[in-house]
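4.2 Preliminary Data

To establish feasibility before requesting continued support, the project team ran the inverse folding procedure on a target of 397 residues. The structure was first converted into the token representation described in Section 3, and no sequence information of any kind was made available to the design step. The complete token record follows.
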């Protein structure tokens, strides 16, 4: 049992709050804090048990420290944005409280994400006797746990890793992103990157694509992108010769994105507008639907998994592990679409792993550095059942 402070009351924050409340055996007192108090209160009103709420600016370390000292959590879950990773880690260090997040730090003024900024805290966290668990959503998060599980139970050596992420759902809007629009568009418009021949290889944004056959969905065009878990997985599993990440986008989504890019709306360079400076992408975010509002009429499913090839007992082996998740079922359960749900459930399970001591050692870690088994046991129980295919036909090349 422990007290938990959840920061961020968006699409994912709502799911984390519901799931923490569903697992009352593991979580004692719960607080949901965010920039806009009203959003915390609206979520709290729908939860099966009472929680506390608060307003906080998570960019401000002093404010965070004051809130942590007041509420006295054992763990702070950063479910706000990657921009806040370092300020919340600083506040956790100052108060000696454990930390968890779902996305790695990126500076506001450079569209670049990598673990270096957060891995730099390893020694400080170790000295303080506290733990940080990085990237504990679905991807990153379950994708790393799936890979660790494959390594532990199915391979002597993993050689080829492909993480495949499909959203075959429909929200009925002309254009919307399934998680924070600013973070999502920054990620998608970056160059692609994959690991091969012991180095990172770059591709033009969304220029490499192929059909991937997703279970219960069928073939969908999938685009090679850089995704942060690749960075830690190729270090933690050095036998991996090639690691890639693929995501589906509809033609409609890509057409809208291209137009927005061409007219400059996805830029993060400030422009003068009516006597003040604004960032076009931040303005775009303000007019797009919020991820937390997409759930109501969302139909269809998501499918996220890992296809791995390697050697077991001297023989070639192919292994595919995945979860499929239904948007409408998520909405019926917690009032969220499946992208928020598949992120929020693993975040809650990561918190449970830490507070029960099953994943607990001082320092800064990625999920695949821990025993995957207890996490995998909880995944199905809390709404994300997983399936395996062994020596199956490849879903793609
Ligand atoms: N690993 C994965 O699989 C995965 C998948 C999807 C998303 N994610 C991550 O999950 C996180 C949340 O995504 P989401 O879809 O829930 O986004 P969202 O709906 O936009 O919610 C973000 C929340 O953070 C709050 N916030 C932003 N800046 C803040 C600040 N300075 N202080 C306090 N609160 C602040 C926002 O407050 P306002 O409402 O006032 O703006 C909002 O409530 C993001 O980091 C995203 O990258 C991870």
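Position-by-position output of the design step:
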């Amino acid at each position: 049992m422990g007290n938990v402070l959840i920061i961020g009351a968006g699409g994912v924050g709502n799911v984390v709050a519901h799931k923490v409340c569903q697992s009352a055996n593991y979580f004692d007192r719960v607080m949901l804090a965010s920039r806009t108090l009203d959003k915390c209160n609206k979520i709290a009103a729908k939860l099966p048990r009472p929680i506390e709420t608060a307003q906080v600016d998570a960019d401000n370390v002093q404010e965070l420290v004051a809130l942590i000292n007041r509420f006295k959590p054992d763990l702070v879950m950063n479910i706000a944005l990657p921009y806040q990773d370092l300020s919340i880690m600083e506040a956790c260090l100052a108060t000696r409280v454990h930390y968890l997040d779902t996305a790695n730090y990126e500076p506001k003024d450079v569209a670049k994400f990598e673990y270096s900024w957060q891995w730099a805290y390893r020694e400080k966290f170790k000295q303080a006797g506290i733990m940080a668990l990085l990237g504990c959503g679905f991807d990153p998060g379950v994708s790393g746990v799936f890979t660790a599980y494959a390594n532990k139970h199915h391979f002597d050596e993993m050689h080829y890793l492909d993480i495949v992420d499909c959203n075959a759902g429909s929200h009925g809007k002309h254009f919307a992103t399934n998680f924070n629009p600013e973070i999502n568009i920054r990620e998608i418009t970056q160059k692609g990157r994959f690991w091969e021949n012991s180095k990172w290889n770059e591709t033009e944004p969304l220029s490499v694509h192929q059909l991937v056959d997703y279970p219960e969905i069928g073939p969908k065009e999938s685009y090679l992108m850089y995704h942060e878990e690749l960075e830690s997985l190729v270090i933690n599993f050095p036998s991996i010769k090639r690691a890639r990440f693929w995501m589906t986008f509809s033609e409609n989504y890509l057409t809208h994105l291209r137009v927005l890019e061409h007219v400059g709306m996805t830029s993060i360079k400030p422009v003068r507008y009516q006597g003040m400076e604004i960032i076009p992408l931040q303005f775009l975010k303000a007019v797009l639907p919020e991820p937390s509002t997409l759930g109501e009429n969302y139909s269809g499913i998501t499918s996220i998994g890992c296809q791995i090839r390697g050697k077991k007992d001297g023989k070639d082996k192919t292994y595919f592990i995945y979860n499929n998740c239904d948007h409408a079922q998520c909405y019926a359960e917690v009032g969220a679409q499946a992208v928020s749900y598949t992120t929020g459930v693993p975040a809650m399970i990561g918190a449970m792993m830490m507070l029960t001591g099953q994943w607990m050692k001082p320092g800064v870690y990625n999920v695949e550095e821990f025993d995957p088994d207890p996490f995998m046991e909880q995944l199905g129980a809390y709404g994300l059942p997983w399936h395996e295919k062994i020596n199956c036909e490849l879903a793609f090349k």
